[in-house]
Specification:
By secondary structure, this protein is an alpha/beta fold. The chain contains twelve helices and 13 strands. The relative contact order is 0.17. Keywords: Amino-acid biosynthesis, Aminotransferase, Histidine biosynthesis, Pyridoxal phosphate, Transferase.
Length: about 350
């Protein structure tokens, strides 16, 4: 038996070592994981209350249309219910977007250094991938626009970008959208939307009225702290959403996940507190990095991308791992999830040791 040839060129997503694996390998008592951009403050207490008091019947399939959650999200965003599609995390939404739109003899445009699942699933569909290098850590929208042609089906903009934390502002985004032909779908991955606090970060929901070829992706995994429930959603033109529903798996979001998401939306104070704490800790990181001449990108996410002069990303990753700290290494740098105050302070001390040796 043989699978598609293009699958042979790919590797499955590797989430990194578990805390228990690292404990055993390095004989450590405590591990701090700052690798996957989870919310270090957990989730709203209302979520725990909901999933323990509003327990669904586990022998019954979930509501495939996510009706109650759909009403809640539509009201929360100020959109119509038929503008929403739900998924098991944004990974699944990316998968069925690509499955629905890409095929051989089509192409998709994206940044070179961005969320890898866009590329991964495009390869599976045997589509051409046009990657544009980041410019100062940001999407090079001018060059991305030049890559679009009659066979382009999807353009991806991760905003804020993962792994750099940089963002495309309101003016830049609108100028870009005005250049994109109507046959090309522009997907805005706003997984870290809630963390973005700069005044010129785009207000994207109103843009849906102007650009029918725009789809926005958001998730409950990050600021809402529901990564373990795997639930995300897309917002777009009703006609597009109806077509995408055909590619969605039936019963793809669990009853428990829907219940948790509804409860999470009822506690905006928790999200606001999370975002405020994240911003405060980011500012501390900036001051620390400036003092030690460690290069970084100012971030609009709950993570920060750094380089220590003279140290490779693999070396930084390994040095931290041996001390019980798990971060995420990339070819050109290291991404660190912003943790709680005490975690960040301890990590800064370790980074200072590495930087002092290298300077």
């Amino acid at each position: 038996m043989k699978v598609k040839e293009q699958l042979l060129t790919l590797k499955p997503y590797i989430p990194g070592k578990t805390t228990e694996e690292v404990k055993r390998e390095y004989n450590l008592d405590k591990i701090v994981k700052l690798a996957s951009n989870e919310n270090p403050y957990g989730c709203s207490p209302k979520v725990l209350e909901a999933i323990t008091t509003k327990i669904p019947s586990f022998s019954i399939y979930p509501d495939g249309a996510a009706t109650e959650l759909r009403v809640k999200v539509a009201d929360y965003l100020g959109v119509d219910e038929d503008q929403l599609i739900f998924s098991s995390g944004l990974d699944e939404l990316i998968q069925y977007l690509i499955r629905a739109m890409l095929s051989p003899n089509t192409n998709t445009v994206m940044a070179k250094e961005t969320f890898p699942q866009y590329r991964h699933h495009a390869i599976i569909e045997n589509a051409e991938i046009r990657e544009v290098p980041l410019k100062d850590g940001k999407h090079d929208l001018e060059e991305m626009a030049k890559q679009i042609d009659g066979q382009t089906k999807i353009v991806w903009i991760c905003n804020p970008n993962n792994p750099t934390g940089t963002y495309v502002n309101q003016l830049e985004l609108e100028e870009f959208l005005s250049k994109v032909p109507s046959h090309v779908l522009v997907v805005l991955d706003e997984a870290y939307f809630e963390y973005a606090t700069n005044n010129d970060y785009p207000k994207t929901i109103p843009l849906l009225n102007k650009f029918e070829n725009l789809l926005i992706m958001r998730t409950f995994s990050k600021a809402f702290g529901l990564a373990g429930f795997r639930i995300g959603y897309g917002i777009g033109c009703p006609t597009l959403i109806k077509q995408l529903e055909v590619a969605r798996l039936p019963f793809n979001t669990s009853s428990l996940a829907q219940t948790a998401a509804i409860a999470a939306l009822e506690d905006n104070a928790f999200v606001e507190k999370t975002v405020a704490l994240n911003k405060k800790e980011l500012e501390k990181y900036y001051q620390f990095f400036d003092q030690l001449q460690i290069s970084y990108y100012p971030s609009q996410g709950n993570f920060i991308f750094i380089n220590i002069p003279g140290a490779s990303s693999t070396e930084i990753f390994q040095r931290l791992l041996e001390k019980g700290w798990i971060v995420r290494a990339f070819p050109n740098g290291v991404r660190i999830t912003v943790g709680k105050e005490e975690e960040n302070e301890q990590l800064m001390k370790l980074l200072a040791e590495i930087a002092t040796v290298k300077l």
